[in-house]
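Pilot study result, target chain (315 residues):
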Amino acid sequence: MTPLSRRLLFAAALLPAATQAQSRMRASLGTAGQGSLFLPYGTALARHIATVAPVDLEVRETRGSNENLELLASGGVELGLVNMGPAWDAWHGLNAFAGRPNRSFRALAAMYETPFHAIALASSGIRSLSALAGRRVGTGPAGGPGEVFFRGLMAELGLAATHVAGTPAEMARMVRAGEIDAFFFGTGLPSPPFVEIANAAETVVIGFTETEGAAFRRRFGYFVPYTIAADTYRGQGTALASFAVWNFWMARADVPDALAEAVARGLLQDPAATKAAHPSAATTVAGNAQANNFVPFHPGVAPVYRALGVALPAI
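Predicted structure:
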């Protein structure tokens, strides 16, 4: 079956929504694993969308952005939550996507910013990212954003650490058990696994020094400075310097316009209701479309942004 045939069949399955008021569109949404923010955010927003738009989303638990991008390319999901760092890599054929660019996806709407930072038990003596050299560091799912960004930072600093992969929930357990020395991760704040660790033990939450930040930006120029406010976590008495990257709702490029439009409308037409669905959705608003400067928006969302008076960035 050709890609066009698959698209026509999928579109045909959705057409009754336009001809029968009681019919609803269905699609799958790639999120992430236990302990991530993608999973509860995606689950909450899927429920919200179902109440305001004729779309039922099946939430699929995955290993996060990289797997979601692979699933979008293979047709395994129609929609995916994606960090713009892995999206950049996929678009340009870098890192996990080296030699095989993936441009199968289109943007729908902004989610929230993801600041990266680390956490360690206070008893470890670790007080900086550079001090993780030679240590066992959890970086989340294998090949995921945490691993890519931490490896890049260490390479720029001329340092090395032992990387340990696993779900965010597994990383939290391993820090608490002393099986790894620290966990480097990025998610919307407060990071659920960091909250779990900090509430269970005396910890140190670690941001970037000026030298570390300069090294990080040399490798990953699409990050922007971000401040993690004091008291984001128990025992974190001062603000921390960090760097953040946006996350976006993505759709397969070939999903019907009707599906893309309905999902975008459900997310963006009532910001107060969207925020009420999940606190991290406070920044899931039309104006934050400007945070995307390289992934084309799906044509189906154009009427939604136009109705809201927001001009999509020219990409």
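One observation from the pilot: The longest helix spans residues 38-52. A full batch analysis is planned for the follow-on phase.
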